[in-house]
């Protein structure tokens, strides 16, 4: 329940984490996909662990951090600036956990893990691992939305720490009246997993989007002008587009407006009916932020009504994989023959 002199309103959600929750700010999270949770724990990450681990079984998963600027989204997803293993955010803990499981399953599965780190700034997609910007395409090739962005193979948490440090350095941040170090973009760390069952030859593909959304804010309160005003307008527009997608999903509309924003376009494969998704919603306990908190909770209330349906794993049997390999080999042979004929 939240209240001030004029208004008192109650909200009900899946789980609430208070200020003392380990590696979590004052936040509440909501599942877009119905989840069966393990016993309650204070740790923010442990409650999301079953969802994250399902990536290794071939599911697409999306985890958001949403809320007003300065409420702790980046802290939850990445951790503080002076990072230690105890203060790792969800991003690092997720990869660390996935590496541990791949080691445990090494006699059953052969896994390959690669990561991409992207940012959406003023509706332009930037590759945070190179600093390059541009209008990247979304052809969804082999389960990868942005195949022309940098893809780095990772084998340990140390690899991830190094890449995340580079990505955070390249991310767009700036100062506003509400937050002296405000994220001015949406960052998306995507983990692509390919696993092969050593016994059956079946191949599975899973993707995990870890999304640190830019802070929602009222333009008048943030006192943004010039470039900061432009950034705030783009941020609010893309968050509104995310809200429109959620509204369409909640009523099972035949048309879902994914293409209205680079953010929803990028995450389409993890917001559809075959994926699992979860949202951390952050609120500031500051009394002056009451109106922003109320707006955030209303958005979260809409999110909580969404039912994505049963998630499906992306798995190919060994026979299907062999047939695809044969088709690819035939295409390459035909291309080679066509080149020889052209030469003659």
Structural notes for this entry:
Strand 12 (186-197) and strand 13 (203-212) form a beta hairpin. It is built from nine helices and 15 strands. The N and C termini lie far apart (79 Å). It is 35% helix and 23% strand. Strands 3, 4, 5, 6, 7, 8, 9, 12, 13, 14 and 15 form an eleven-stranded mixed sheet that branches. The chain has helices spanning 44-53, 73-77, 90-104, 157-170, 219-222, 226-250, 262-266, 290-304, 318-343; strands at residues 2-3, 8-9, 15-17, 27-31, 60-67, 109-121, 124-127, 132-134, 152-153, 173-174, 182-183, 186-197, 203-212, 276-282, 314-316. The protein has one domain (57-337): Kinesin, CATH 3.40.850. It has 344 residues and is an alpha+beta fold. The protein is globular, with a radius of gyration of 21 Å.
Question: What distinguishing features does this structure have?
Answer:
ATP-binding, Kinesin, Kinesin_motor_dom, 344 residues, alpha+beta, coiled coil, globular, microtubule, eleven-stranded mixed beta sheet, two-stranded antiparallel ribbon
Broad structural category = alpha+beta
How do the SSEs run, as a string of H and E?
A: EEEEHEHHEEEEHEEEEHHHEHEH
The CATH superfamily label reads Kinesin motor domain
How much helical structure, as a percent, in the residues?
A: 25-40%
Give the CATH level 1 class. Alpha Beta
Number of strands: 15
As residue ranges, the low-confidence spans are: 24-42, 174-181
Q: Which CATH architecture is right?
A: 3-Layer(aba) Sandwich
Domain Kinesin motor: 1-306
Keywords: ATP-binding, Coiled coil, Microtubule, Motor protein, Nucleotide-binding
Protein name: Kinesin-like protein
GO molecular function: ATP binding; microtubule binding; microtubule motor activity
